[in-house]
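User: I've been going back and forth on whether these two constructs are worth ordering. Before I decide, could you fold them both?

Assistant: Sure. I'll take them in the order you sent them. The first construct and its structure tokens:
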Amino acid sequence: MKIALIGLGSVGRGVAEMVAKKDLGITITAVADSTSVCMDADGIDIHTLLARKKKSGRCGDEGVSVTELLKKADYDALVEVSPTNALTGEPSIGYIKTALNRKKHVVTSNKGPICLAGKELRALAQKKGVALRYEATVAGAIPVMHLLEHGLAGNEILAIYGILNGTCNYILTRMADEGLTYDQALLEARELGYAEADPTYDVQGIDAAIKLVILANTIWGNGATLDDVERTGIDLLTADALRLAEEDGCTIRLIAEAIPRKHILRVSPRIIPKNHPLVVEGTLNALTLETDMAKEITLIGRGAGSVETASAIIGDLLYIRNHYDKRA
């Protein structure tokens, strides 16, 4: 299976490293970073590619656009892992459309296009007879999309509840366990690389809300948008609030929830018992699916990370190769 890889940041490097390390039957024939591209129909030497990127900051030559690469390169599937633009989804939406119009499969970790244009992109993929898969957009290595599609086939999904942002979970864990203030816990999260220099998307619940929209539209196809999500972040929480919850045998977690029958689409800090399945530590994610037959199923795992996200992307690629298109 030949793939074109757009994005060579943390996730892109993780994908490339795992393709090089494992005998997966996957060959990378095209790569693009923010300033350069590299193409070889016979397969790119990944070790050389990553060494060049580390030394020069570029994966290859300048002067060729990503769109040109997608139109000319020899590949079966596009892996689109460039940074998320939650406002417009561009230029990634354009990249995905270019690949789909060439009847190429697409696997992405990019939340922007799926949140903002998921319905349109899924329709285009179906029209062209190819796959659009996005396991890595929600909860990192946790195979929630695969479970919804296969393991819970035939079930009606009644509600979803979860911790979908590891940065917030780390901050709240440290505030609860060590009595840190929000600012102290955020500083620690930054020092450990869990929080960005500007943590707004995480701590104000925007990232979790985007993931909630993707899940809601995937499960119910209800056309939800980010504006439909009632959202409160954790940036105003105090150590006293965590301490008071502790006195009642509870703690506070940022919970994303969707309950169609109650018209609830919400991300907010919630007080929950410390023995609740969603009370996970550190940067872990957790998600509970409430169903009519299987009842409640809770998934716990790593919601971010280079190799962890690569796990979800590679799973989607192998699904396409093994089940969707035997020609790939």
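The second construct, handled the same way:
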Amino acid sequence: MDITGTIESAEIQYKQILEDFFISRYNEKSLPSHGIKHHRRVWNYSKELLKLLPLNDSFQISELTSNLIIASYLHDIGMSVDSGTKHGIYGRKLCIEFLSKNNLPENNFRNALYAIEYHDDKNYNNDIFRNDLLRILSVSDDLDAFGYIGIFRYSEIYLTRSVSPEKLGSLILDNVEKRFVNFEKTLGSETSMVQKHIKRYKIIHNFFKKYDEQLPSYHFGTLNPYSYCGVIEIIQLIMINGLQLENFLTESDKYSDDPMILSYFAELKKELSDY
């Protein structure tokens, strides 16, 4: 069976039961940036990478694919328990619960469990990342941190972790640069996939560079958010009021008439529909 057929077979066997399990355990309202749509996008990126990357591991492509779809769909499910750095450990435990519920032998999915536990190591430890499955999952997860989607996802998770707006930009810039360097290192610089995501990396990088430039003169908590810092203030408003992002995007002009803010949310809406 070719790689396309192997992917289709894995989706037929696992995709629906993974989505059902994820939705049953994860509260989308508490952290929508890491909900089911994030995991669907990560799986789609993983499928692309499976077709592009030379693989080092000796296990068969069908075994790799089966482990990969499970890791793609459950890597952040631990956020339902802990939105911090321990979510990989909780994700591993929930994956074991998924396997048991569906009568899937744990020994057959050790690579998925390993990848779920360690996927958020953004120091890219070389010993860990020799594992093909973890390498693909990590890069796929990184790709969902770029672009207009990445701006929202980073802001929501860092603000959830009580990072102050004053520190937000510098922390995100440092983290997203590590992700991009790992992405380029993994794929090289010549593929069309790299060229596409260079543009998305520049979107988030340029946004937070300008955010940091505006920060010293911006006062959070005013009645009229504006420009780059204003985007983050609106994201805070979405979080505080428990607004559903999809609903907000249909009426974002109710919350601001600032051109920069309206432009950002229009681009976010478009990117979400594209991906």
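Notes on the second construct follow. The CA atoms of residues 226 and 257 lie 9 Å apart. The chain is about 70% helix and 0% strand.
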